[in-house]
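hi!! sorry for the late reply, been swamped w classes. u asked for the two structures so here they r. pasted raw, havent cleaned anything up. first the sequence of the first protein and right below it the tokens
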Amino acid sequence: MGKSVGMLQHATPFLLGVAATLVCLTCYRSKIIVGGHARSLEAFSLINATQVNSTHIACEKKEVASFDDHLISREEVVNQTTVQNATPVEEEPFPDLLPLLKRVATIDKTVIITSVNEAWAMPNSLLDIFLEGFRIGEGIEHLLNNLIVVTLDPNALNHCTAAHPHCYPLTVDGKNFTSEKVFMSSDYIDLVWSKVKLQRRILELGYNFLFTDVDIVWMRNPFKHITVYADLTTCSDEFLGDPDDINNSPNTGLIYVKPTQKTIEMMNYWLDARNRYPPNHEQTIFNNIKADLADNLTVKIQYIDTSYCGGFCNHGNDLNKICTMHANCCIGLQSKLHDLRKIIEDWKFYKALPIEEKRNGSFT
């Protein structure tokens, strides 16, 4: 019995040492910080770990909260404790976009988006013509409340804020989008792909969007020709008569997308496809992959009849039906300005006609 007591006395310091070691390890483990970063409306799953290096670690307090089934640990660090990130914390893509979406969106979380650089946003340039279309259009001026103009350089932002209350500055690293970008030039291609990334982010945040190029004149509401059936609705360069026909030729200068996991995957597939094809316009790449999107991702794509949403390449002639007119097949800023101003003049003339004469209104 005395021998057992003696052994226990000798073992006590060892056991206390083990216990102290476990306490220290517990304190050290409590310094591991887990953070949740929202990435999409279905998945909040990007986790960043934090590593702690310390000469003296004292663990006084640990609070644990939960967020989307991930543990978030917060602790009070004392006695010269230094926290270092194992990996750099990723900055939120498109900062300050969500508050603007909340402010501008319709009650069903829909926004209209267009984009401009300085050349397009200057007074009497494309942005002014674009905004005028809403003001003189048929019952669409209120849609300006739901329009966000994305600006691609600081001067464009200055011009935008002077003309419209909802402007969002977008910067692309290493790129200068200030001047006119010639169709299919390298800068032009980078510019049009930057809008696809923004569109994806809008979907991730849970908002429907209708993107419209700024060289489009709106005369009536194109939402009347967008159904709840489709995941994606786009205008057409060539419309074959059936809105569900995958062989229609898309014009992504006016495109509507609903926010679902499927459409977010679609945007990822679209962006990835840029690297699988020779450098090209995002619309051409979309046309290349549209069958894959429909077959592999089961994306429901619908096309709007050119009688309603047309362009200079292909459009309807009945001014009683036309909703939008796109200055495609028109190269160069000055040429677009000249032709779009003619559209505005024709529309004003049409609106001033007596009702009987309006019924015979045509566009050539």
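now the second protein. again sequence first, tokens right under
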Amino acid sequence: MNASQVHHCVENVIRCQATTRLLLAPFVTLSLHIPRSQPFHLQQRPFHHAGKHFPCTRCTRSRSCCQQPHGIPRLSRCLKKSCSAATTVPLEPAIHPVFEQKTGTFQYLVSDPATTDAAIIDPVLDYDKCSHTITTTTADSVLSLVREKGYRIVRIMETHAHADHLTASFYLQRELAKHQDFKPPVGIGKRIGQVQSLFGQRYGIEAEEYEGVFDKLFEDDEEFTIGTLRAQAMHLPGHTPDHLGYKIGDNIFCGDSIFHTDIGTARCDFPGGSAHALYQSARRILSLPDHVKIWTGHDYPPDGEREPVPYVTVGEHRQKNKHLKDGVSEDDFVKLRGERDEHLAAPRLLHESLQVNVRAGRLPSQNEAGMRLLKVPIKVKGTGAW
């Protein structure tokens, strides 16, 4: 084994995160850092070299696996064993929820403790409906947290085209590109084109303003990484047809599908929404192990009763969720969801949100007068001169 091969294999061992120390005397001595939150146990078996005992912390076979004649350790075999069959401990992310009060939206900063690479999920752009003013206070608080923690943002991810708040994805992407070595891609599910086409036509948006604005379109169940963290994009239709959840370690960021246990689930009356599909998506989430944390996209705490809660475990949802606890059938769910949706008012920022979000957070182009315009439909009551 040449030096290049040794280094390559050692790098793989580091990614395995399987032991606190790899001793390959007399050739290589390397310490591995494992976060304290990830305890592990690995049996050590000695092998002989030059009359001394050195712990081979990677092999669980007899000492002959690491021994050549004349007492020389067989480095290549030990490394091969360590890379392929060592016990591994998956690394869990550090998660920073940021709650935006006006729209009741949770946005998340999710980082890999091993590399400080991180992702931002569902960021919010502030919009005042009365003055028609866009500000970046909430997004800037996320940027401050990124700088405070020393993170490098490698992805910005949307669960869907939101209808209740404006996304800050484009703003964050542009600002981050000024301060780190590359521009993080903005990702969303592959079905976003259907939503863009529908609302592009409805609001008269030119196709050139929304086509190709997302840098990454996730396939169903596509696996990807954030640093050394393994993640998966899960298609969770129901609230909208393009809706995704992101599973990262023992966490799933479910967007607008499952809410807190005392609220239940998200509405399904948007174009392409389906209570049947949402029930199946929710059951897919709740089939995960009980300890998995479900990080919600929104929370609307009853006044004074509790603080916003970013996550509840699978087990707790199965016991307590008012729409989805064990024993609720699909027919029961569809009935109660339909009755609930029938009386819900439209989201306060419905039209403004959709027009910005199908553009991935970009604002409308300026017209000849230098104005950026969002269209809001007029409701006319009565049959008078109109």
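hope this helps!! also noticed smth abt the second:
The radius of gyration is 26 Å.
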